[in-house]
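The instructor's notes for this session suggest beginning with a concrete chain rather than abstract definitions. Hand out the sequence below and ask the class to guess, before any prediction is shown, which regions might be ordered.
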Amino acid sequence: MTDVRTGIGYDAHRFGGQGPVVLAGVAIDHPTGVLGTSDGDVAAHAVCDALLGAVGAGDLGAYFPSSDPKWSGVDSLDLLRSCTERVTEAGYTVSSVDVTIIVESICVAPYRDLMRQRLARAMGISVEKVSVKATTMDGLGWIGEDAGLAAQAVATVYA
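After discussion, reveal the predicted structure:
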């Protein structure tokens, strides 16, 4: 019998500093950047946590703590590659990933296909196994007030 597991990931960051904003490995022009230790890619970070969660390997902060300055400005797709390696080392294969980006001031649709490609390439899977969606908060809360953005992801792996 195949062992199938699912993990959930979430990440959020405030807007601040200079743009661009990086989402799923794609740099998007924006008047402000994202405050975060790495490049602040909430989509890639959420996928990392979903993958790690699926194999019971903790979370992104356990491997790449924000308190360590060596992760400052790092490409989050490199972190995703590392997390995918941990999935493989645990004896699993990534089956599919679904990520939802939650943001008011960025239209994700024009970048969706490139985001799917970049995430798929980083995980070593086909683009058909990666879904990227977006929604807004319709003006509700700190994301709705355009103070930042978030992403949530679900990953399915199998052995």
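Then share the key points. Strands lie at 4-16, 21-23, 26-28, 33-34, 93-102, 130-135, 148-158. The domain at 4-158 is CATH 3.30.1330.50 (60s Ribosomal Protein L30; Chain: A;).
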